Amino acid sequence: MGYKYQNLYENLTQIAKDKPNAVAIYDDKIKLCYDELKTKVDRVAGYLESIGIRYGDKVAVLVTNSQEFIISYYAITALGAVAVPINTFLKFDEISYIVKDCEAKVLILSSSYAKELKKANQLGIHHFIWVSDVPNGFVKSAPLDKTYEEEAESLYLGGEFSDDIKHVSFAELLEFPNAISHECKANLDDLCHIIYTSGTTGKPKGAMITYKNIYSNIVGVSNRFKASSKDRFVVFLPMFHSFTLTTMVVLPMHVGASVILVKSVFPFSNVLKQTLLKRATIFLGVPAIYTAIGKAKIPWYFKWFNKVRLFVCGAAPLAQQTIDDFTQKFPRAKLIEGYGLSECSPVVASNLLEKQKLLSVGKPLDGYEIKIVNDEMMQLSIGEVGEIIVKGDCVMRGYYGLDNSDTIINGWLKTGDLGRVDGDGFIYIVDRKKDLIISKGINIYPREIEEVIYQREEVEACAVIGISDEHADEEVVAFVQLKEGMDIEEKELRAYLKKYLANFKIPKNIYFSEELPRNATGKVLKRVLKEQIKDKI
């Protein structure tokens, strides 16, 4: 595939030139135009350059949803440096692992993490940039001035930082007098960012994503969703997540559209309010969001006066009940399911605007190939269930600092997801390969059982896992979270399941939980549930 731009800064520069007064970011009552955005990016990039950040250096970003996140991300990449967005829900030890693993030289972070990072001197980083100001307890460095570059020379010595730790405020960076001194030299094959996986098993791994990876995604998604400069993308999911970052930050900037910034998903009424008032046209959510919307009482005026033309769902497959509830409430808009993973930049496939299939995640984006294979990497026939493998410009360079020979084979990425493809090329996700339950030699797919449990109106969320017994066979176990104020007995739920499922699929144990553990994108953490179940056996 051919791409118009070599890097993100080149893209932003062109948009700012063509549409200087167009609104790039709606931040509550603030409107930030593309020309203003580029000016801020240039100043932050100029500061980073002055302290020695160069091509290929890693800069970690631990920032909640804000214009500062977007400015930081584009400023880092403007230098040909590599951005490393960090999950804002992590604790010190987890943050420390990522910062040290990627060898970050600077950390840009929200001041709300001051308490968590009291041991900041143990991170091995010597330069901290705080949004919005340096918190109490950290010594603020001297104000920036035109002589700061001279001071920086003592900090950055021969490619290594000195032992002095600097703490500066992001607000000062926006006043830095020297903008970036040269055009960005990064090309399509260079690293753009490193996204660390959620670490559901073992330590998180850093997926190295190039500009080609990113552009293959945003061009493919843009064509699939028919995105244009007239669109407005409402962003409330965490920007550190690959799905949000690519499709709701970089994509709108690519086409010159607007980002409606919502700093948090809570309260959700504010998300709906901003969607309505700012006339959002594209809305990205995860299954938990759409389940909640489908079951909640949505104000009549939102249903009739919102401008959303497209609701997009990623992170995990939607339950059929969720799709039914949602489409009944919003018959004028389309709800599109997609499929992807961080290692694929992240979007692999989505349904088409003109043609969708229930419970399918659609077809691969233009230029991508997928196959369904067995354990020997042999392709299976149409309709057969096997592992999904992906090939195309979306496939990451590899995991940072790790051997990737078992992950990427002859250009094909092993996703670890189980699925099937129908005669029209539509993909159906069956389950995670690691979540597959094998009981008495029979394959059991947890999602199939979860779909039936979700049909009960009392159920808010559920998760089905396999637990090994003393014979190393697996038993089916279900965790169920009920809606507030509603109840159902285990006996009644079990009887209901028997109407729709074979006996070998019926959970041996059903545990009711006040709240299921989730990650930042709403995925239920089955690893955590497996750890919890050990105490119950």
How would you sum up this structure, described in words?
- GO terms for molecular function: long-chain fatty acid-CoA ligase activity.
- Residues 496-537 form the SEA domain.
- Belongs to the ATP-dependent AMP-binding enzyme family.
- Helix content is 29%, strand content 25%.
- It has 537 residues and is α/β, with parallel strands linked by helices.
- The protein folds into 3 domains: 8-13 and 31-196, ANL, N-terminal domain (Rossmann fold, 3-Layer(aba) Sandwich); 211-433, ANL, N-terminal domain (Rossmann fold), CATH 3.40.50.12780; 436-534, 2-Layer Sandwich (GMP Synthetase, Chain A, domain 3).
- The chain has a 9-stranded mixed sheet with strand order 2-1-13-12-14-15-16-17-18, with helices on both faces.
- It starts with 7 loop residues before the first helix and ends with a helix.
- The relative contact order is 0.09.
Brief write-up:
This protein is an alpha/beta fold and 537 residues long. It is an enzyme of class 6 (ligase).
Question: Top keywords for this entry?
Answer:
GMP Synthetase, Chain A, domain 3, 5-stranded parallel β-sheet, 29 strands, Rossmann fold, 9-stranded mixed β-sheet, 29% helix, EC 6.2.1.3, membrane, long-chain fatty acid-CoA ligase activity, 537 residues, alpha/beta
Give the neighbour order of strands across the main sheet. Answer: 2-1-13-12-14-15-16-17-18
Query: CATH architecture of the largest domain, please?
Result: 3-Layer(aba) Sandwich
CATH topology of the largest domain: Rossmann fold
DSSP E strands, number: 29
List segments where confidence is low: pLDDT < 50 over at least 5 consecutive residues: 151-162
Structural class category: alpha/beta
CATH superfamily of the largest domain: ANL, N-terminal domain
Profile the largest sheet.
9 strands, mixed
- Mean pLDDT equals 89
Proportion in β-strands: 25-35%
Helix count, DSSP H or I runs of 4 or more residues: 15
- Under the CATH scheme, which class of the largest domain? Alpha Beta
